[in-house]
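We give the chain.
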Amino acid sequence: MPKSSSIGCLLLDIEGTTSSVEFVYNTLFPFASAHVETFLHRHAADPEIKRLVSELRAEQAADAAQDPQLGVWMRGTAEEEIATAAKYVRHLIALDRKTTPLKTLQGKIWEEGFSQR
């Protein structure tokens, strides 16, 4: 007989499941866009956030190779790095891009926002 799992629930997608699609597009996405830069400042030293930003940097490089209008990822001070990451995240949100580092970061921003309410 298999052992029971300690996982009680696995939520894979919220759009239209736990909340309306309109709430996602009209509330959650704008919230993440508005708060991404301050979130990155607060969590810049967190290893998981560093990994997500690194993955986003790699995505941005691939996107910029296809679309030079995106420019280059600013590498310099922590402030420049965060500003560039936030700008790219807002770009991806506007496109409704479905990539793991973006969705993971959005989820963390939303989680923090919900816990403060």
Q: What stands out?
A: The radius of gyration is 16 Å. The domain at 21-116 is CATH 1.10.720.60 (Transcription Termination Factor Rho, Rna-binding Domain; Chain A, Domain 1).
